[in-house]
Structure formats: C-alpha cells, structure tokens
Amino acid sequence: MSALVSVLRQFAGLFVEDGWLALAILCIVALAGVVVLLVPRLSLVAGVILLFGCLGVLVANVIRAARHERVP
Amino acid sequence: MITWTVAAPAISAAFLSSLVEAVEALTIVLAVGTVRGWRPAGLGALAGFLLLALIVLALGPLLDRVPLHLLQFAIGVLLLLFGMRWLRKAILRAAGVIPLHDETIAYATETAQLREQERQHKARLDWLAALASFKAIVLEGLEVVFIVIAVGAGRGLIIPASVGALAACLLVAAIGLAVHQPLARVPENTLKFAVGVMLSAFGVFWIGEGLGVAWPGEDIAIIAFAALFLVVGLAAVALTRLPRPKAVL
C-alpha cells in the first residue's frame, strides 16, 4: 500500500515540483482561455499570450530560484 | 497522413526522454542485481513492465472516447507542466544553481540502501530487492508512457512515438547488459534540456489547438516554438550562471 502511495505521489511530482511555476503556468493558460472565450476572432492573441507568457514565467522563475540560492 | 515535420519532433521527444528515464531505471535495476542477484532484479523489472503494459492497454481505448479538442487541451496542459518542470531544472543545473544528477552517485546510494536493508531484513530481502526494481521500472516507465501518449495522441502519432521510446529503452538495456555499469557518461542534463524544450513546445501547441488557436504554419509552429524555448532557455542559463557545485543524487 505504501509503495502504491509512493508511486502516486511521485507521479503527481512529475507535473508539479515548484508550486509557483505550476500556478503561474495554469494562470497563463486560464488567461489564454478567457481571451479565446471573450474574443474568438482574436484566438491568435491568446496563442501569443500563451507562448510568451510561458517563456516569461520560465525566465522569472529561474531568476528567482537563482537569487534564492545566492542568499546565505 | 503523417508528416515528418510533426512526426520527427514527436519521435525525437519520445526517444530522448525515454533515454533519460531508461538510464535512471537501469541504474537501480543494476544496483539490485549487483547486491541481491539478477533473479529479484529481473522479476521486479518484469512485473513493472507487465503493469505498464496493463496501464497502456487500459488507457488506450479510453483516449479514443475523449473529444479531440478536450484531449489536446488536457494533454497540452500536462505536457507544459511536465516540460517546463524539466526545462527549469535543466536550466538551473546548467547554470550551476543546483547540482547535476550523477548516475554513479545514484548507483552508490541505491547499493548502500540495499545493503542496509540486507542487514535489517535478511528474510524478506528478495522481496524488497524485487520491489526496488519494480518501483524503478514503474516510476520511470510511467513517465515514458505519459510522454508517448502526450506527444502522440493529438495527431495519431502513438505508434511512431512508441517506436522512438522502445528504441531508446532497448538501446539502454543492450548497453547496460554489455557494460554492467551505470551509464554515467550519458549527458543527462543536455538531454533533459532538449526534452524540456520539445515538450514545452508541444504543450503550448496542443493547448492552442485545444482552444482553437489557428497557429501560423500549423504543425511547423512546433519547431518555431521549440527554437524559441531553446533560445530563451540558453539565455536563462547565461543570466543565472553560478560556479558549479558538486554533483549529487
């Protein structure tokens, strides 16, 4: 049983390691979804938000992690 | 009709990510085999493969019943979470912010744990050893199964992606059988970086498809996204580079 729980826990860990990163990605996806729902004509704008939002979140996250690591 | 522009990234992503996972699984199976013999290591690994096969057989027909746009969106979100997690870690490792993964250390740690178990639970040891081998195959294999389904399901590329994954697993198993040592020379972080880039690109593409975004260039957009993730990832390494710490597990 504990082996199964351990397997399930590690499986969930495949997708979420840094909660801040996962939350930020989900917010970007939600924002893109809202844009598509409100203005379906501008679906490409939602795509741009999705792509550049994820890139921005990634850079912000690694800079934050590196700064955190530098603090004694 | 499967086009190479979309099949090649799917096959490469499945091959490279399976290479990483297979190397990690091999390290643990080798440690079990070396400490407790090849019987529990082999039986545990076989049981793990059987469970993975059952999961694939159970999930496969279910995927056909999910509406395509919903499937693309859900898989895209999971791929993006998975891919950006790998990419983040690979960037931080390449920049020296966190230590690199080292298969030799992983092998030594696993061997030490098995020897400690040997001391404490002599009677149940074969079971414990087989369980360690089983867990390694199931955990690393689940990642492979997920990646194959994720990069293949949205465009009917499950079979090409499976071939890519199977080729990587067979390659690692063949080398592992030949050398009987953990494959410490595999450039794991570079592979993880490449896979993180590809899976993140696939994730953005599938989410967009699921939302109804008309990507310019259609499937070719995946390659452009991957190039963008690669450039930004490399820039992030340069921005955050620190003196390299010692490798750990």
Task: Please give the alpha-carbon distance between the first and last residues of chain A.
Answer: 40 Å
Tertiary shape of chain B: globular
Number of strands of chain A: 0
When the domains of chain B are counted, the total is: 1
Could you walk me through the main structural features you see in this protein, from its secondary elements to its overall organization?
Chain A has one domain (17-70). Chain A is built from 3 helices and no strands. The model of chain A has no long low-confidence stretch (mean pLDDT 86). Chain A has helices spanning 2-13, 19-38, 43-70. Chain A is mainly alpha-helical and 72 residues long. In chain A, 83% of the residues lie in helices and 0% in strands. Chain B has 249 residues and is mainly α. In chain B, helix 1 (4-36) packs parallel to helix 4 (103-120), helix 2 packs parallel to helix 5 and helix 3 runs parallel beside helix 8. Chain B has one domain (4-240). The radius of gyration of chain B is 19 Å and the shape is globular. Chain B is built from 8 helices and no strands. The interface between A and B is large, with 37 and 42 residues.
Concise account of the structure shown:
Chain A is mainly alpha-helical.
What does the secondary structure layout of this molecule look like, with pairings?
The complex is a heterodimer of chains A (72) and B (249).
Chain A lengths: L1 H12 L5 H20 L4 H28 L2
Chain B lengths: L3 H33 L1 H28 L2 H27 L8 H18 L4 H28 L5 H22 L8 H24 L9 H20 L9
Helix pairs in contact in B: 1-2, 1-4, 1-5, 1-6, 1-7, 2-5, 3-5, 3-7, 3-8, 5-6, 7-8
